[in-house]
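To assess whether ligand presence alters the predicted conformation, the chain was also submitted together with alpha-L-arabinofuranose. Input:
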Amino acid sequence: MLNASFTVDPSFRVGEVDPRLYGSFVEHMGRCVYTGIYEPGHPSADADGFRQDTAELVRELGVPLVRYPGGNFVSGYNWEDGIGPRDLRPSRLDLAWRSVETNQVGVQEFMTWAKSVGVEPMMAVNLGTRGIDAARDLVEFCNVRGGTAWSDKRGGDPYGIKLWCLGNEMDGPWQIGHKTAEEYARLANETAKAMRQVDPTIELVACGSSHLNMPTFGSWENTVLTEAYDAVDYVSMHAYYQQHGDDRDSFLACAAGMDRFIDAVVSTADHVRAVGRHKKKINISFDEWNVWYQSRFAGEKNLDIEQTPRLIEDVYSVTDAVVVGNLLISLLRHADRVKIACLAQLVNVIAPIMTEPGGAAWRQASFHPIALTARFGRGTVLRVEPRSPVHETAEQGEVPLLDAVAVQGPSGLVVFAVNRSQTSPLTLDVDLRAFTDLSSAKHTALADDDPDAINTIGAPDRVTPHRREDPKLDGGRLQAVLPPLSWNMIQLS
Ligand code: AHR
């Protein structure tokens, strides 16, 4: 048996959890929109064509924010194609995913859906093939009360969309309209200024690097923020993780890589702040993150042109779900600077929710740690410094077998913890002497005898969290046993 311990103290504050940390992402890609959230004719569809079985699961997942409409898709998108009478909307060739985009869902339909499921929209503008004009027109369409050409086309109350992304992954050569850091920095700065002239209350996200291993990582953020520091509020981060070969230990440790990535971007933003003598801090919008088996995807260049193709519909195992839970621990640990995060994506496309056209909707294994963290990880994050056994991994170097964070919320204290050992349970000892009024502890774990177990349409509840034996809580000390390869939530009240 392994042993690990840490102390939780209310004075070790990291910061408040911004609920936007639990956001997600709907891209016009594969079956995320069509047959995912929208399927007129589906038995559960409402009068607007939105699947209510999916909507129910989105509410249960607890995401408060959804980024839209892409992703790579946005860099070739004309938002005007998706407004007005549906029978007049053009079908376009989407080059990002070599798909036929029918434009039956556009910004108006998305806003109807967002309102009905209770999520805040985060809108991305096209800085690939388009620029200042299309972006400022879209802000006018969405946020101006009326009396102008674009706002009058909307009808009804303004949407008041607060959060806007200045393009998507503009550092990536795969992006339509890919730019150098200097080209993007100028365009982002000028577009941001024009968008704010339309609506001064909006918040803006500049593109950071598409991932940590981009050759321009670091210098990209430096150039973009040096140019656009005053015009933007956040810099974006994107990261996808997967198991390579049979190296499960490295995969289970990838949250350590996410920690390093966040620390590096925060340092770069703070360096630009110091050099430019800026007062405000630029925070992080981690607006794409997840497990994605990119090695199983042959790449968009090899796709036949199709309408609503099945693209990157990864099926997540218990192991993947434990990693997703651990990545959320990393995001929480950085709650002082990571204010927005979007799990990519929401439905069917590398998603916690799966649907069949005309059929059922169900929860993937990864749904569970996300839903539980989004529900109970609210309040103030408290830093913990575990004493834990360590092991060596090929990709992440030496890592502790225990990773954990604590959140003090309105209904008590919650500890989220992962045991990265594939073989051994771990006894966790927590010093809680600073909390004098705790009397009950409840332990929920996601673990399985088969680390490859998955949920399917036929067995949608094969992987679910289970209540464990109540941990011992005695004299200000908590003792719990974390199963091998597990994600855990211990609720203390
Ligand atoms: O989420 C899938 C794709 O991953 C997005 O379109 C893109 O932004 C990223 O590379």
